[in-house]
Amino acid sequence: MKKLLLSFVLPCYNVENYIGECLDSLFQQDISQNEYEVICVNDCSTDSTEDIIREYQNKYSSIRLINHDVNKTAGEARNTGLEHALGKYVWFVDPDDLIEGNVLKRLLSYCESGNLDILMFNHSVFDKKEGITSKIITYSNSQIMTGDDFIRKYFYKKISSVSIVWLEIFNVDFIKLNKIRFPRLFFGEDSIFVWKCFFQSQRIQSISDTIYIYRVNDSSIASVFKRIPNAEQFYSRNILFPYEIYQLQIELVAKQYDIDVIDDLENSIKWFLVQFQKDLKTLSKTELKRLFLICKQNKEVYYKLLSYMNWKIKLFHWLFCFR
Q1: pLDDT tens, 147-160?
Q2: For a 10 Å CB count at each end of the chain, is N or C smaller?
Q3: Residue 266 to residue 276: CA distance in whole angstroms
Q4: Could you please report the per-residue DSSP string of 26-87?
Q5: Given its phi and psi angles, is residue 66 left (phi above 0), alpha (psi -120 to 50 degrees) or beta?
Q6: pLDDT tens, position by position, 227-258
Q7: CA 245 – CA 240 distance, rounded (Å)
Q8: What number of other Cβ atoms are within 10 A of residue 32's Cβ?
Q9: Percent of the chain predicted with pLDDT > 70
């Protein structure tokens, strides 16, 4: 079987209002539909997301639907899609977003001619009421270089600026060879994935083109959490995410990586641990009790993060979480 050039991977959960427009944009392209596939991983949606995907399958034979038996979060859905991907390259697109039309030929030519591990580009912000509201220029035109050199040259002490997974196209063999996967988190899983890819990449390039269209979506997990925070998601964002950064930092220390990058990651850990205390006021009394129970059940995670806490945060955790 001829290897496809590209696999789109879409982690789908309750996106009935958006998935159709997203799929339409993926098929308004300038290469043959026989050269790429669209993998929709349905993470136990409770709306008509699956039905809409099946309707699109009648129109486009290159759409593949994979259903999870239990909800596993967006990161795990992306892992599932990656495991089934037949393309040489993979692009993780969120199903409530869009991509510009007729861009695949140009993007894939960069990947092929440069034998790239990672290609990066820019995005615009879309609000259905107002249309395209702004362009976010993160990347300029660069030479091909290692991920280490790229970070040092363009994002010195600003590693958090390169943490969005849908702004890159990745070489699938590169990801699998380095055994890079998304952690199971409610928030920040794409940051961990992207950073690991950067630290392993030997051939990376960015272009100044604005390719991706990010949609303002009030029903996304992040938006709903801001309005109605719950204990599990709070713990994932403010403890598990910094713990994943901690584990990555340990790996880089063992490899004697650039100390400035390690310090940058350490500052991110400290920031989230401070936010833990500040953001508690957003939780209801019921969710607070549930959060403290989760903390007590996962003391081993806290012990790994103790050295990053100042004395006030340590005292707070001892009084409220571990008494």
Answers
A1: 999 998 999 888 88
A2: N
A3: 16
A4: HTS-SS-GGGEEEEEEE---SSSHHHHHHHHHHH-TTEEEEE-SS--HHHHHHHHHHHH--E
A5: beta
A6: 667 888 888 888 899 999 999 999 988 888 87
A7: 9
A8: 10
A9: 93
Question: Which residue shows structure tokens 């989230």?
Answer: 272
In which band, very low, low, confident or very high, does the pLDDT at 134 lie, cut at 50, 70 and 90? Answer: confident
Structure tokens at 292: 């403290």
Residue type for 145, please? M
131: left (phi over 0), alpha (psi -120 to 50) or beta: left
Question: What six digits make up the tokens of 199?
Answer: 């630290």
Residue 140: both structure tokens together: 């300029």
pLDDT tens per residue across span 32-51: 999 999 999 999 999 999 99
Q: What is the mean pLDDT of the chain?
A: 90
φ, ψ at 69 (rounded to 5°): -80, -30
215 vs 229: CA distance, rounded Å: 22
Phi-psi region of 181 (alpha: psi -120 to 50; beta: other; left: phi over 0): beta
